[in-house]
Amino acid sequence: MAKIIISHDGQVLQEVQLSKDRITIGRHPQCDVVIEHRAISAQHAAISTALDEAMIEDLGSTNGTFVNGRRINKQVLADHDRIVLAMIQIEFVAGPVAASKAAAAAMPLGHVEVRSGPHAGKKLPLSKPLTTLGTPGTMVLAISRTPDGYMAAHIDGAVPPGVNGAPLGTQPRKLVDGDLIDLGGTQMAFSCP
């Protein structure tokens, strides 16, 4: 299982196993990982995991989120990436992924079919651990392929995409065969045998 090692001034403060699909990091007591440092925003960043991929996302923090020295909004993490939140250093350590890869490989392959717009009829296979659809800054939907099925979450943009007429939140929601996705007026259908 992947984990993060949090340190400050060379001293390890804590190690956290990434056992949930999404963990929040910040100063607020309701965050999954609480870092009590005045330069850390109340809700500073979040790490989402799906199979063997982890993605870090800045949650509009004041001092920013940096990966390997570069300020990011969102970025897929690689083993031993160095994350900096204000004065706090975090090392991402990827865990063993063979079991989750085998479980995902046994799962039927799903796809989305575009039902409206200029790309109507186009089918997009959902073969990667994480597929993003949409336009960054406007509206982005992430579909992750997990051993339990396909999960969808709104990860970017002021207006969330919809699933079966209801707005999609940032917490992952399981997709079922026949779900209709509305991505900024483009209609898509999810299918998984």
From TrEMBL:
<feature type="domain" description="FHA">
    <location>
        <begin position="23"/>
        <end position="72"/>
    </location>
</feature>
<dbReference type="InterPro" id="IPR050923">
    <property type="entry name" value="Cell_Proc_Reg/RNA_Proc"/>
</dbReference>
<dbReference type="InterPro" id="IPR000253">
    <property type="entry name" value="FHA_dom"/>
</dbReference>
<dbReference type="InterPro" id="IPR008984">
    <property type="entry name" value="SMAD_FHA_dom_sf"/>
</dbReference>
<protein>
    <submittedName>
        <fullName>FHA domain-containing protein</fullName>
    </submittedName>
</protein>
<dbReference type="Pfam" id="PF00498">
    <property type="entry name" value="FHA"/>
</dbReference>
